[in-house]
Every structure is written in C-alpha cells, then in structure tokens.
Amino acid sequence: MASLPSPDDLSAALPSAVREVEDFVSTSGWDQAPQLFALVSTADLLARQPGLADQLDPDAPLTPIAQDPLPEGDLGESLAKIEWPDIVAGCALSQEIVVLPPEAEAEIAEADSDLGRIQQLAAEHPQRQEARLVAAVLRNGAGACVLRVRGGGDEPDQLIERPDLAPNLVSALYETLS
Fold first, then answer.
1. Is-contact 71 78, C-beta < 8 A?
2. Coil, strand, or helix at residue 19?
3. Is residue 146 a contact partner of residue 160, using CB atoms and an 8 Å limit?
4. Which phi and psi angles does 101 have, rounded to 5°?
5. How far apart are CA 143 and CA 10, in angstroms?
6. Is 126 helix (H, G, I), strand (E, B) or coil?
7. How confident is the model over 125-160, as pLDDT tens digits?
8. Where are the domains of the chain?
9. Do residues 11 and 29 lie in contact, with contact meaning Cβ atoms separated by under 8 Å?
10. 131 vs 120: CA distance, rounded Å
C-alpha cells in the first residue's frame, strides 16, 4: 500500500488540483452556479476504497470530488453551514464573477454595502469582464486560486494563477474545514 502524502506534499499538489477543478468545470461552459469540491488524498481514498483504482490517477496526490449543488442564495451563509469529514484534506469552490478595472472601485465604494446596487453596477459597467474563479484551501492553511477571464470574440480566455486572488473566499473555505 502506498504511504499517505505529507501535508507539504498536498500543499505542493494544490495548484494542480485547482487547475483540474477549473478544467472540469470549464468543460460545461459558462453561466454555471457555484460548485463545491472536496479535495481528498488520493492515497487515502484508494486505501479506503480500492475499487476506485481504475478511475483515479494514483500519481495525483489530491482527488477533487464534486459535491451536491449549493443552495441558492447567499454563498457565505451556505459555506458557514458546511462541515467536512476527516478524510477531506481540503475543499475548492468554483464560481463565476465579474472583474472590474481598478478605476471602478470608486463607483462601487459609493454603493456602500448595498449588495444589490454593487451587483447592478458591476453588471452594467462598460469595462466589466466575466470570469470564473476557483479557490481552494487545505486543512493546513495552504491556498491556491485560478481565475479564467472569459475571452471575447477572437480573444482566447486568459488564465491567471495566484494564491492571493481571493483571500476572503480562501478564508471562508478554510472555516468549513475547522
């Protein structure tokens, strides 16, 4: 039996798992609801369920497992109700967002905390860009993010990978693991 990976091994594998989630979600195109994934140590999963050996990549330290759809409504409230079993090493969330240029921050700041008004301003902004954000975190606090900015016309989608793209979302996901 293969040994279970160390937390450092899982941390090193997290960006690859996030890209795998984004690739999986992108096969269904755009205009999707947020999707939640458990991230499980592949070795641990195979040790518990050896019958999955022909379905999993044994060389991948982490295996993403799609979860049931999240309830409609406030994402933060939905995340606050989630608790993971010990086998889950981490979790990832895919959600579509609107990206605005920095100069739009002043307009958004005027909307204060009126979420409906903020969403309206973002949706109507002439320089808005549609994007899909996948954020993930492990129990040890390691995080990773991938942002796919939707291309327009002849322009291809742009992929941006940085662990600090969505610190608040990474933090909210981490809270589901504690």
1. yes
2. helix
3. yes
4. -70, 160
5. 11
6. coil
7. 777 889 999 999 999 999 999 999 998 888 899 999
8. 7-177
9. no
10. 16
Phi then psi dihedrals of residue 25, to 5 deg = -65, -40
**Residue 64 CB neighbour total at 10 angstroms:** 22
Query: Which residue is associated with the tokens 């902004």?
Result: 125
Is residue 22 pLDDT above 50, yes or no? yes
pLDDT at position 5 is 66
Check the CA dihedral 128-132-138-139 and report its sign.
positive
Instruction: Compute the distance between CA of residue 41 and CA of residue 161 in angstroms, rounded to an integer.
Output: 22
Length of the chain: 178
CA distances 155 to 29, 102, 126, 149, 150, Å, are 16, 22, 18, 10, 9
Q: Which two tokens stand for residue 116?
A: 């409906």
Distance CA(157)–CA(168), nearest Å, equals 24
* The model's pTM: 0.87
Contacts of 75 (CB under 8 A, 6+ apart): 34, 95
How many Cα atoms sit within 13 Å of 118 on the Cβ side? 14
> Which tens digit of pLDDT belongs to each residue from 68-103?
999 988 999 999 999 999 999 999 999 999 887 777
